Amino acid sequence: MVFEIIISVLLIIGGLFILIGSLGLLRLPDFYTRLHAPTKATTLGLGSVLLASMVFTYKIEGYISVNELLITLFLVITAPVVAHILAKVGFHHQVKMTANTRNQELVKVARVRGKPQNKIEE
Amino acid sequence: MLKRIFPLPHHSILIFAVWLMLNNSLSPGHILLGIVLGILIPYLSAPLRIPQPSIAKPLKLFPYVLMVLKDIIVANIQVALLVLGPTKNIKPGFIAVPLDIKDDLPLTVLASTVTMTPGTVSAEVSQENEYLYVHVLHLPEDEQEIISYIKTHYEAKIKEIFGC
Fold first, then answer.
1. What are the TM regions of this chain, as residue ranges (chain A) (predicted)?
2. Contact at 8 Å (CB) between B139 and B98?
3. Residue B44: how many CB atoms within 10 A of its CB?
4. Does chain A have fewer CB atoms within 10 Å around its N or its C terminus?
5. Contacts B112 to A, Cβ<8 Å
6. Whole-complex ipTM
7. What residues of B are in contact with residue A90 (Cβ under 8 Å)?
8. Given this model, what pLDDT does residue B42 score?
9. Could you give the angle at the alpha carbon of B39 between the alpha carbons of B103 and B45, nearest 5°?
10. Contacts A27 to B, Cβ<8 Å
11. Does residue A37 fall inside a structural domain?
């Protein structure tokens, strides 16, 4: 009974955060801000779902499953790389930013991997 | 001699452990296969490796991982609130974080940490690893605040762990 409640609560929290991550993709104003939603909201969401899965296999199937730990490990390694590459691609394609983005001039130097002191003339 | 068979001992142990975890079993067959893979893969891939600074203080890793886990949870809640609130209040921006770390591996760890934690995504590194460009979802008025947070919270600790 207690375990069922724990599993349910974890699944609800996980579902909620994954939903919010998807909502973020829909609602945030531009490409760069949209990058934040899937890299963050989903880590906690997926983490709770995996934790629920571990509790479930321990209680119902009767053994400790460690595959979930590996999924977490691979997620933590790959998610930032994807976000980094997407941001880089955004620089090179000169994706539009929302008007209230500050320090927009940094994109120009970042694109050529320069230092912020060197101003780039277009 | 031992160096010839195990050119990368840590990698051998890691491959062995990950193999057993992937198969979720401790049967003799999988242990044998894990040992074979743990010897064969590092043996074949060692010549391709670019030398990286090794971890000088492994014990410091645990408090670091715990701190990052805590920050990930905080980050999730902060981003969730920003997403659910009115989106026109969000003030994004770019910052350039000057780096003390110059080596690739510690820098990768730092950039990944920055991406996983509150409202920041690392986007680009300047040549010769001098600046890390970061996109911030909600940039406070004083951007120095975030830069010094990244430097004292993450960079200083990574420097300590890698001893560079």
1. 6-26, 38-57, 69-87
2. no
3. 10
4. C
5. 76-77, 80-81
6. 0.81
7. 123
8. 87
9. 40
10. 83, 87
11. yes
A95 is a domain residue: no
Rounded CA separation B119/A76 (Å): 16
**d(Cα A87, Cα A99) in Å, to the nearest integer?**
18
Q: How far is CA A111 from CA A115, B46, B127, B133, B136, in A?
A: 10, 33, 11, 10, 17
Q: How many helices (H) and strands (E) does chain B have?
A: 7, 3
Any B CB within 8 A of A13 CB: no
For residue range B95-127, list pLDDT tens digits in order: 888 888 888 888 888 988 888 876 788 888 888
Who among B76, B87, B131 is closest to A40 (CB)?
B76
Structure tokens at B108: 């990768």
In a domain, residue A9? The reply is yes
When CB atoms are compared, the residue of A32, A43, A77 closest to B135 is A32
Instruction: Tell whether A45 is covered by a domain.
Output: yes
Containing structural domain, residue A39: 2-82
Q: What's the whole-number mean pLDDT along residues B14-19?
A: 90
- A59-95 b/e (C-beta count within 10 Å ≥ 16 → b): eeeeeebbebeeeeeebbeebbeebbebbbebbeeee
Give the number of residues written for chain B: 164
A9 pLDDT band, cuts 50/70/90, is: very high
